[in-house]
Specification:
The complex is a heterodimer of chains A (303) and B (432). Chain A is mainly alpha-helical and 303 residues long. Chain A has 14 helices and two strands; from the N terminus they run H-H-E-E-H-H-H-H-H-H-H-H-H-H-H-H. In chain A, helix 6 packs parallel to helix 12, helix 9 runs antiparallel to helix 10 and helix 11 runs antiparallel to helix 14. Classes of the chains: A mainly alpha (303), B alpha/beta (432).
Amino acid sequence: MTSTATNTPVRRRRAFSRKDRLTLTAFVGIPTAFHVLLVWVPAIGTIGLSFTFWSGIHISDIKWAGFENYNNIFTGTPVFWDAIQNNVIWLLWFGLIATPLGILLAYQIDRQIRGHRFYESAFFVPVVLSLAVTGIIWNFMLQPGGFVQGIMGRDISNPISIYGNYDINTYVILGIASWRHIGYIMLLYLSGLKSVDPSLKEAAAIDGATEWQTFRKVILPTMKPVNIIIIVITVIDSLRAFDIVYMIYGSSTGWPILGILVFQNISGGGMSMKGAAYAVILFALCIGPMITYLKQSFAEDVK
Amino acid sequence: MMSDQNNGISRRSVLKGAAVGGLGIAAGGSLLAGCGSKDVGPMKWGGRGLEESSVQWHEAVKTAYETATGNTVTLNMNDANAFQNNLSQYLQGTPDDGFDWMAGYRMQFYADQGLLEDVSSVWDEIGDQFAESYKIASTGSDGKQYFLPTSWYPWGLHYRKSTMTELGLDPENIATWDDFMKMLEATKKKGLIGYALGDKGGWEAMGTFDILNARINGYQFHVDLLAGKEKWTDAKVAEVFKYFEMMIPYMNKNVLDISWEGMRDLLLQKKCGAMMMGSWFSGDFKTLSQADYDDLWIVPFPEINPEHGRDTIDAPIDGLCVAANGENTEGGKELVKWLASKDGMQARLDSGNTFTSANNGQDTSSYDPFQKQQLAVMGEAKYITQFLDRDTRQDFANPVVAPAIQNFLRAPKDINKILESVQAQWDALPAL
């Protein structure tokens, strides 16, 4: 405490003029006000709503429900557990397959393997498409009467069942999601790899490290900031997944995930307080691992 | 209550009279135009549907009303889906005086919340222009009317006449379950799909459930089930799914892969025998070619239980409500009265829009044969239901029933477990 005290007064003494203060207040205050108004107020409102019964009409009709909506979701809504299952499968798939593939791809391209420019562009193209567009494209490709079915000579009366076949549709959807996710991770990792000092790799090679050892002991630790971003993106993208599924199945629960349940209940088809409770669950699932992970990484940095 | 019943009876006898001589109704119509002309100040009309055809007829009808009565109307058109999703905010804010809406539960819910104006007085004036079943569908839970019907369409079995002729069948003669099974068998032998069904959207197969339940257990049971007065675990409901299961071997194998567009295309491409759908899709046939449209036919779903015959049909009614928070509710009532009346509907028909009027006295001479058949199909039914997602709680229809039917189509053997889960989910709904 005493050691820091000797440093801080220097900073504190820097006085702001009236004008500076006004400018600062405006630059910090206005965005903060907007942020609080547009993010925090609705977020707290949503959390509050999730503990009520409300038909959404008269404020006076609002009734305290305690944990009743959550109880209903956890014990009385089987589709919630189907959704959780699908979200978990999505997370595992992204975490164990799609993301590592993207990293591998970035590493190989960075090593300038033969045809790396081709691979780079091929995997980069899906990244420029929004998730919604990705969903539209693949729905058009695979649905009955769609392009792929068409070139296989199958019309609408005898198509191969894909989106309605519950043995395979999960993997088809994950495949579509990966089609974009792999390229995205590749792009992020590649930009990180470009900034790694080549002399580090040379030094490792001189020390006789294998390719794998170099990657694991040298590249991966150097890339820590990028790794954190990638993990955060993978977790959040898996949990908030919505667009692709919505484009294929609409707001029906043909392939339930949490994002669809939030939407289905808030937008017309259900009860907003239950939708709010789903949103809070989703928020808790996203924020929990994020805070834990970020805290840990920052703590290590301080050391 | 007593006087209501008396009114009902007298209204019915008026209807019989009207059926004999259209002249009486025509005279009534011009009298009504007379009442509509009283000065009630400027009023606002909230319309649904931003597509060109919709805007066009709304504007034509608005002009016709202004010319006929001298009143001023401001027309505000809205996107249909957004309007539906935001209706509660709309009604609590500064709503238009009269607005486009639908009959049944979706009307009753807002009526119960006190957001809709009682329009019983309008029914007293022009109620004789509508069938009794319309009045039931326009009535809130307190017995008063909150809605005026304008147009409607039937849910029934759609066939292609040419396909049926090739099979040596006449859709008109497919009147019982046995006839129906024979038709399915015949189409299957021919290598076609007997009963085209898609349920990717989750709502399409509700039409089949509705009609099977109404045919097997009757209107009252169906309505009570959707209102939670009967149980989904009742053996009667399991019976419905037994019949549903009998149809599965004749269905396309990709029910959960296709939505209503797929069903339409199966019929359009002559790949199937029958398709259960609301007739609103028929416009797509007409857009493609007049020949395809002329080949289209609709008949009521066949009788299963003779006790109920073919007395019920899903025929969603679209129409108008008056907002309780509107600035000019009296004006709103005058507006919806004229819009729903024979004259108002004639103006809408004259604007070139294709639909069937809900008004009894409408001159149907300009209708094509398919439109006339739609009317005949709906006219046969004694009870009108609105469709499952309009007849029950919003947090039950799509979030609970839709996945339950999808699960049934996936694994019909699990039906008892599925129905138990549906009932458990109904029981867990908060009382609102």
